[in-house]
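ok posting inputs for the zinc ion job
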Amino acid sequence: MEIVYHPHPALRKRAAPIEEIDQEVRQNAGKMVDLMFEGRGIGLAANQVAWLRRLIVICPTNERGGERVLINPRIVMSEGQEILEEGCLSFPQLFGKVSRALRIRYTYTTLEGETVEREAEGLEARVIQHEIDHLDGIVFTMRMTPADKLATRKAVKELERLYKER
Ligand code: ZN
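and the output
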């Protein structure tokens, strides 16, 4: 398993719900947590490892032990708005401002099969919105402010050139 980069087709596909939490799901979730920390990221979606299932791992504290695995995550309420700079492990060295809801209420299933409903704000809310977007085939460059879309256009093209060469 490895992180795939833009414009890998898995990044533009909608991931399917996870019906059963089996050995494969547990193993892949563990590998994704490792890849997230190796990449110094605070979130990773299954699409980013070319696995098209609705699972994300997050660690807003960016420290081992603070990681969480969210299966079939869903936002049920969102409010407020904040524009902040984001990055993405599938777009190395690329950053841009994205508008996100400030507060969200969300549900997900844990690896133990428990359904949880929680509230988040600030960075945690932002990470979850960014990662759930991945599960829907939406990448953060699509949501960037017009100015940052323009400012990052060259860097995006460069990623596309590198991808073709691989
Ligand atoms: Zn991302």
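notes: The pocket of zinc ion is lined by residues 88-90, 130, 134, 140 (CB under 6 Å). The two ends are 17 Å apart (CA to CA).
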